[in-house]
């Protein structure tokens, strides 16, 4: 049975919400930024994009391109509230809804589209309901799987609706650049180009043995993507995550180890607390650093046993830092816990371990109830500025439901 998947992608989501809640911003070029001095643009309005203003650009570059650009500090609570409310609208048409990110969702309407006049009628209804309720636009893509629905939404932006039925998938992909496919980034595109693979049609015809030699097992996935095939269903229930991480662009470039330790401890606590909240432990800790010239690298270490204890994560991250000879000041730090498994709930046999576990549980209980960092480790009582920019991967439930400010 051919499935019918709808991809809903909000247009310039953060900027659109800001323009709607502040009528003086409507029709003007705006850029949503974080609260810190070192912030970058998280989203720009379509009026700003006409000047070349893009996500990830720093404010100085953006102002050069668009002297009249209006910078707006993002309000994360508005965006997460809107995301939750959008989810209620989606559920009017199907129970099979995956909130993929804060501004994107997938709906499997295979079993319900006949109740609403077909998938395109559902798409038009969704666009109208969202516009009437929030005053913002979205783009709807419809296809036989998630990959093609996502591609259709990308091609129809902004404020569009596009359906690609199964019999049109091949002709559409034949001359389409491979970079248009979801999940194929610049590095993969460059590798494929060296193999003479430029279009999705080329990719779909490439021998799987050749792709496997170059990309390993991923080569098989690339080939079927080039053919427009994607087997993953809409994930109504969130799958167990592969990793839990936090990163932070610092208010200023730093080089002194003591300052770096403060941020690493703060990030380790954020990672550990989230792992504990959702019952995960991990064995691999990764530390990511970005220099002032934007060169970014990650080093990792594997622990003897699984943990979600802030102290273990912190110490492991510091042990990685000890192996790095810094060549420049650092502008971003990230900490990640991976190789995750579900927590067993076993009691520790040692008194010190039991006391430590009870202490952490008490801290989490207070912070979950009264807000982040109400109780904190004495090591970072000297608070450092930590501007929070919400991740686009935020979701209203599960491990990606990160506390916002």
Q: Which characteristics define this entry?
A:
single chain; 405 residues; alpha+beta; Alpha-Beta Plaits; DNA polymerase, domain 1; Dna Ligase, domain 1; five-stranded mixed sheet; four-stranded antiparallel sheet
CATH third-level topology of the largest domain: Alpha-Beta Plaits
Order of helices and strands: EHEEHHEHEEHEHEHHHHHEHEEHEH
Inertia-based shape: globular
Count of DSSP-assigned helices: 14
Q: What amount of the residues lies in strands?
A: 15-25%
- Please state the CA-atom Rg, rounded to the nearest Å: 23 Å
Q: Give the second-level CATH assignment, the architecture of the largest domain.
A: 2-Layer Sandwich
Characterize this entry briefly.
The chain is 39% helix and 21% strand. With 405 residues, it is α+β, with helices and mostly antiparallel strands. The chain has a five-stranded mixed β-sheet. A four-stranded antiparallel β-sheet has the order 9-12-10-11, covered by helices on one side.
């Amino acid at each position: 049975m051919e499935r019918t998947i709808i991809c809903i992608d909000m247009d310039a989501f953060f900027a659109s919400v800001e323009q709607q809640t502040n009528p003086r911003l409507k029709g003007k070029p705006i850029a949503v930024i974080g609260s810190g001095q070192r912030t970058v643009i998280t989203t720009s309005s379509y009026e700003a994009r006409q000047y070349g203003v893009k996500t990830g650009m720093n404010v100085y570059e953006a102002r050069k391109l668009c002297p009249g650009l209006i910078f707006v500090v993002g309000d994360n609570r508005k965006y997460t509230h809107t995301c939750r409310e959008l989810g209620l609208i989606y559920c009017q048409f199907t129970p099979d809804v995956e909130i993929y990110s804060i501004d994107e969702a997938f709906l499997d309407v295979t079993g319900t589209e006949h109740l609403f006049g077909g998938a395109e009628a559902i798409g038009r209804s969704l666009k109208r309901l969202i516009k009437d309720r929030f005053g913002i636009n979205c783009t709807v893509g419809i296809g036989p799987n998630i990959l093609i629905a996502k591609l259709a939404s990308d091609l129809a932006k902004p404020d569009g609706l596009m359906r690609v039925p199964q019999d049109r998938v091949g002709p559409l992909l034949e001359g389409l650049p491979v970079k248009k496919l979801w999940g194929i980034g610049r590095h993969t595109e460059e590798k494929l180009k060296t193999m003479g693979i430029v279009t999705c049609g080329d990719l779909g015809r490439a021998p799987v043995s050749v792709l496997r030699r170059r990309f390993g097992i991923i080569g098989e996935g690339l080939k079927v993507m080039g053919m427009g095939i994607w087997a993953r269903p809409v994930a109504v229930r969130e799958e167990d995550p592969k990793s839990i991480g936090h990163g932070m662009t610092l208010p200023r470039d730093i080089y002194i180890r003591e300052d770096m330790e403060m941020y690493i401890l703060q990030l380790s606590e954020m990672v550990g607390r989230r792992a504990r909240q959702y019952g995960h432990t991990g064995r691999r800790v990764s530390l990511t650093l970005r220099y002032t010239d934007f060169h970014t690298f990650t080093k990792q270490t594997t622990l003897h046993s699984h943990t979600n204890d802030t102290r273990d994560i912190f110490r492991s991250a510091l042990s990685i830092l000890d192996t790095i000879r810094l060549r420049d000041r650092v502008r971003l730090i990230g900490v990640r816990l991976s190789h995750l498994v579900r927590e067993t709930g076993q009691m520790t046999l040692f008194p010190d371990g039991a006391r430590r576990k009870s202490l952490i549980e008490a801290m989490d209980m207070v912070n979950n109830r009264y807000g982040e960092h109400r109780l904190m480790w004495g090591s970072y009582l000297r608070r450092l500025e930590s501007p929070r920019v919400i991740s686009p991967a935020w979701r209203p439930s599960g491990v990606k439901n990160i506390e916002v400010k």
